[in-house]
């Protein structure tokens, strides 16, 4: 057995008697239950007491009494307790051991830990669902919230996930998603600056690399936020920057813990996968937002162009109407001038009003209604200024232009 299982990744333990005393166990079995408990000569329930509450010792008792083997597939086991507690999955067999007379004297435990496979399957399932959300252009807040809840469900220990988004200036971080963190905490860190020593997230954003803080209570990065973290019941924070394909900052992805903790390989894998997924979602959101903005600007430009064309048409129609009216007015004035040309020429000015004017009548004025009068130059100029549509009707002067350009006597 030692030759067969000594270097194997399969778990092996030989248990003796109805108390299931661990007679021997290979390194893989001892590593699975925890190196700190690596010893033999004691009942399995004393070595791994948490197995009793999960039904595994009862199954051993049944196999010992009945002499029938038992096989479990894809079985979930919670090992250890407190900060070291971990979830694991196993395929295993309890095989009764018999003496020469056929009496059951013990149980051989043979198994394979499939925790990584199980986690990978869970991760792939959840990751595929998130990618489908992104593909159907679900709102960014919905994708990030779903991602945070997914990670919180995948990890056996309690974890609280937060996603912060880089602000337009790239120097501040804004709230993106944190479904399990208290509101007062999210509000307090919304808008924090990026920079060295600004908590886990601000530092990760500044460095463009992961920052692992295993104990907030003693880490200098959290000096300014330690009281806030204590109020929220947070003891550890691992932050990963979310980077675009060109290396620019999109935000940060953080995993908080209630107790001081060092990340395991599975934790680091989760951070890498979901930071990449968040980057895809954020970049897709930015691209879609930019596309919609461009479409909105194009639509606004089209509307402005249509309005300008409409206005131009209205102005053109109005100009045509004005031109027609001007032509009609000119025709009326020309007719009035011709009609007044035969009116007798008085000797004195007719435009002096009630006071009269004795100056010689030199110019004839008329309007489009056919009224006409003779007057001196001074009163004729007043008429042209103050009377609508008044014009000089003296044919010998050649009209207003000739009068304006006349030479002084």
Written description of the protein model:
The chain has 409 residues and is of the alpha+beta class. The protein folds into three domains: 2-113, Beta-Lactamase (2-Layer Sandwich), CATH 3.30.450; 118-289, GAF domain (Beta-Lactamase), CATH 3.30.450.40; 341-404, no CATH class. It contains twelve helices and 14 strands. The protein has helices spanning 2-5, 27-33, 44-47, 56-66, 115-135, 140-154, 183-189, 199-207, 226-232, 265-340, 377-386, 400-404, and strands at residues 11-16, 21-25, 70-79, 86-98, 104-113, 160-166, 172-177, 192-193, 211-213, 236-243, 249-257, 363-366, 372-375, 391-392. The strands form three sheets. The chain has a six-stranded antiparallel β-sheet with strand order 8-7-6-11-10-9, sandwiched between helices. It has a five-stranded antiparallel β-sheet with strand order 2-1-5-4-3. Strands 13-12-14 form a three-stranded antiparallel β-sheet, sandwiched between helices. β4 and β5 form a beta hairpin. α5 (115-135) runs parallel beside α10 (265-340) and α6 (140-154) runs antiparallel to α10 (265-340). The model is unreliable at 1-8 (pLDDT under 50).
């Amino acid at each position: 057995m030692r030759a067969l299982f000594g270097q194997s990744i399969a778990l092996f333990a030989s248990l003796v008697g109805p108390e299931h005393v661990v007679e021997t166990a290979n390194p893989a079995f001892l590593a699975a239950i925890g190196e700190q408990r690596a010893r033999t000569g004691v009942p399995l329930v004393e070595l791994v007491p948490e197995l009793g509450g999960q039904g595994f010792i009862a199954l051993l008792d049944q196999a010992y009494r009945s002499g029938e083997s038992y096989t479990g597939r894809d079985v979930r086991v919670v090992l250890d307790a407190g900060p070291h507690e971990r979830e694991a999955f196993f395929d295993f067999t309890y095989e009764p051991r018999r003496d020469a007379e056929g009496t059951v004297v013990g149980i051989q435990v043979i198994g394979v830990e499939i925790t990584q496979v199980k986690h990978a399957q869970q991760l792939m399932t959840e990751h595929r669902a998130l990618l489908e959300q992104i593909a159907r252009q679900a709102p960014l807040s919905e994708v990030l919230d779903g991602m945070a809840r997914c990670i919180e469900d995948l990890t056996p220990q309690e974890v609280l996930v937060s996603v912060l988004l880089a602000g337009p200036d790239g120097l501040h971080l804004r709230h993106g998603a944190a479904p399990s963190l208290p509101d007062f905490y999210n509000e307090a860190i919304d808008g924090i600056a990026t920079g060295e020593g600004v908590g886990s997230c601000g530092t990760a954003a500044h460095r463009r690399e992961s920052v692992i803080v295993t104990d907030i209570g003693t880490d200098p990065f959290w000096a300014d936020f330690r009281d806030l973290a204590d109020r929220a019941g947070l003891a550890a924070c691992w932050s990963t920057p979310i980077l675009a394909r060109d290396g620019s900052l999109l935000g940060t992805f953080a995993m908080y813990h209630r107790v001081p903790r060092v990340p395991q390989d599975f934790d680091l894998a989760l951070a890498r996968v979901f930071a990449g997924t968040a980057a895809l979602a954020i970049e897709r959101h930015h691209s879609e937002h930019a596309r919609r903005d461009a479409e909105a600007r194009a639509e606004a430009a089209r509307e402005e162009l249509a309005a300008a064309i409409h206005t131009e048409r209205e102005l053109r129609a109005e100009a045509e109407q004005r031109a027609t009216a001007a032509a009609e007015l000119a025709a009326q004035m020309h007719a009035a001038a011709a009609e007044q040309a035969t009116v007798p020429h008085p000797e004195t000015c007719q435009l002096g009003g009630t006071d009269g004017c004795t100056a010689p009548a030199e110019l004839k004025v008329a309007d489009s209604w056919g009224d006409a009068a003779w007057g001196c130059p001074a009163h004729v100029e007043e008429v042209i200024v103050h009377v609508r549509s008044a014009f000089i009707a003296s044919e010998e002067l050649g009209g207003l232009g000739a009068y304006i350009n006349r030479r002084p006597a």
